[in-house]
Every structure is written in structure tokens, then in C-alpha cells.
Amino acid sequence: PARVVGFPKDEEVDLALLVVRVRGLEPVGPIADFQDAKVGEPVVAIGHPLGLDYTVTSGIVSAKRDGKELQTSAAINPGNSGGPLINRNGRVIGVNTRTIDPTEGQALSFAIRADVVLNAAAWDLEEDVGRLVSRIERR
Predict the structure, then answer these.
(1) Which residues of 33-56 are buried (b: 16+ CB within 10 A; e: fewer)?
(2) End-to-end CA separation in angstroms for the chain
């Protein structure tokens, strides 16, 4: 079970902050600063596309868009949204959000910069989650 505790102030950021209470949940990796994401670097996207458990797709960072989004060639399909985009150093650089319809263009997928979750000023919070956010490993 989870509860929503925050929404981004920027309507173009398609995320929500959730608090999940479960034992044994481990982070995938530390969150990297957006500046650390490099165009051309290899990445993997983890998710549950089309209901398939724990799949990994690989690609590269194709571009950085508008200071908030990473374009990647890693396949992002329905069900991958919310999963991490991870660089070769094991750092989470993005949160998978969307893809362009394949009839419009091939291998055009996007992730919101992961470090947005660390910026309390970017969120409308339903409750104080500062203590929880401070426990998120960075870089």
C-alpha cells in the first residue's frame, strides 16, 4: 500500500511522490544530479511493460530537453512509467515517463530528471516528508 504525499508544481512534470510502507524494500541506486547525465552515455530502463515483471531495456541518453527531461533510446512502454533510468555507474538519472507513438518516430522515449524528487520547493506536499527525502542517497 502507498499514499500520495506530493505533486509537482510544474504541470509538465508527470510524477507524484508516494510513501510506501513495506519491509525489505531497497533502493535501486543513488540519485544523480541532472548535470551528471551525459548525452551518448549508456543507460538501462527498468519497469513492468505491458504487465511483464521486472524487465530491463538498454539504450543511450539521446538528448537533454528543457532542463527537466532526458530523451533516451531505451524502450519505454506502457508499464515502464515510474521505473528508473540508470546510468552505467548505477545511479538513477531519470524516472521513465513516456514514449512517442512508434508511427511518429522510432526510439523516442523520455524520463523526467530524477533529482527533481530531492527539491522540496518543486513540490506541493500534502505532509512533511523532509525526513524521508533526506534519507534518499544522492550521487
Answers:
(1) ebeebeeeeebbbbbbbeeeeebe
(2) 28
Which residues are CB-contacts of 127 (< 8 A; sequence separation ≥ 6)?
A: 5
Give the whole-angstrom CA distance, residue 12 versus residue 28: 25
What pLDDT does residue 139 have?
Answer: 58
pTM above 0.85, yes or no: yes
pLDDT in tens, 81-97: 889 999 999 999 999 99
Buried b (16+ CB within 10 A) or exposed e, 69-85: bbbbbbbbbebbbebbb
